C-alpha cells in the first residue's frame, strides 16, 4: 500500500464524506473553468450531426426521429446520445423562438465540457479515499490535461459520455449503491451497444466481491430498462430488435495488425497520443498490491484489455475521423488512474511524460482536432512515389503508419501557420530521395486557409465543414 494511502471504507457502506465531496467539487469547478476557456462552441463531427438530427426529430415528434434520410439510410447510432442532447436542444429552441438568439451548437457542445469536468471530479472523489490529495491532484491533472481527454471536451463523440457514465456507475457501486450504479453505467448501452462489454465487466467485478442471488438481481434489474430502449429503437428503425446499422461493417481486421496499430503505430498509437498511459501501466502493479484496490485494479486492466482486443479486430481500428483512437478513450483514461502510485517514486519520468502529453494535447485544443483529417479528405495531397515515377495521394494509411504524415504532424503545421511560422520549402530534389515533406503535399494557401484558432470567441469554417 502506498505510504500516503488511507483507510478503506468497505464496499457495502456508503461513506459519504463532506471533505471528499468538497474536494471533488473543487476539482470539478477548476476543470470546468479550464475547459470553458478552451471550449470551441461549434459542431465538429458528421456522426454528431446525425445524432443531433435524431434528437430534433424526437423533440418535434417526427416519426420518433427514425425516418430515413433521402437516400434511405437510417441513423445507425445509439439513441442514448440523442436523448442526452435533447434538453440542450430544447432550451436552444426556446431561446431562439423567444429572443432570436441562436445557441444550439453552443449549448449542445457544453455537454462535453461539463462531461469532461464531471469525470475528473469522480476520479478525484474515488482516489481521495485512498491517497493523499497531492497525489490525487497530480493524477486528475495529468488525465485532464495530458491525455486525449482534453481535446475530446471540444469534440462531440459518444466515447467520452460512455467513459463518464461507466465510471460514475463504478463509483456508486464501489461505495454501496449497486442498483443506482448499474442503472447509471448500463445507460451506456443506449449510447454505444458495444459498451455492453464494459457493463458486463463491471457486473462481474461487483459479483466477485459481493456474490449471492440477491446481488445478481440487484445488478440485473437496472439493466433491463435500457435493453428495452435499445430494442425499441432498433425495431422502430429496422423492424428487428437487433441493430442492423452496422450490417456492412464488421470485425475484419487481422488482430495482430489492429494491435500493432493501436499500440505502436507512429500515427495512431495510444501511447503517442496519451503518453501518461505509460505511467498507468508502471503503477498498476503497486495499485494491485493494495488490498483495498486489488479488485479495482483487475477491473481497470480488464476494461483496457477488452477494448483493445475488441477494436483491434474492427475494420476501422483507428476510429477515424478522430484525434488519436477515440474507441479507446474509456480504456486509456481508466488505465491512467493507477499512475497515482508513481507520482513520488518516479517523479522525473512522470513529469516528462506529463509535459509531453500536455504539448500534444495543446495542438488540437488550439487549432481543432479534426481539421488536418478534413484537409486530407477534401484536398488531394500528393507525395512523390519513392523509387517509382509519378505521384501518390496521401491517404489514411500514410496518416496511420508514416510519422511524416501523421495527425500530430499535420496539426502542428496548422498551428505554425496560426503563429505565422510556416515551414520552409525543401530542396527541389529532396522528395525523390527521402520522401515529400508533409507541408509540400498541399499548396501553402490551402494550409493557410485551413489554419484557424478553435475557440468559441473566434469565427471559423474548418475545411469541409459548414459555417
Structure description:
The chain has 3 domains: 46-105, no CATH class; 150-367, no CATH class; 371-450, no CATH class. The radius of gyration is 23 Å and the shape is globular. The longest helix has 24 residues, at 104-127. Strand 1 (382-384) and strand 2 form a beta hairpin. By secondary structure, the chain is mainly alpha-helical. The chain has 22 helices and 2 strands. It has helices at 18-37, 46-60, 79-99, 104-127, 133-146, 159-174, 178-186, 188-191, 196-209, 213-220, 224-238, 255-264, 270-273, 277-289, 294-312, 329-336, 347-367, 371-378, 396-401, 407-418, 430-434, 444-450, and strands at residues 382-384, 391-393. Strands 1-2 form a two-stranded antiparallel ribbon. Helix content is 58%, strand content 1%. The mean pLDDT is 89.
Low-confidence stretches: none
The helix count comes to: 22
Distance between the termini: 53 Å
Relative helix content: 55-70%
Gist?
With 467 residues, this protein is mostly helical.
Quickly list its features.
22 helices; 3 domains; 467 residues; 2 strands; 58% helix; mainly alpha
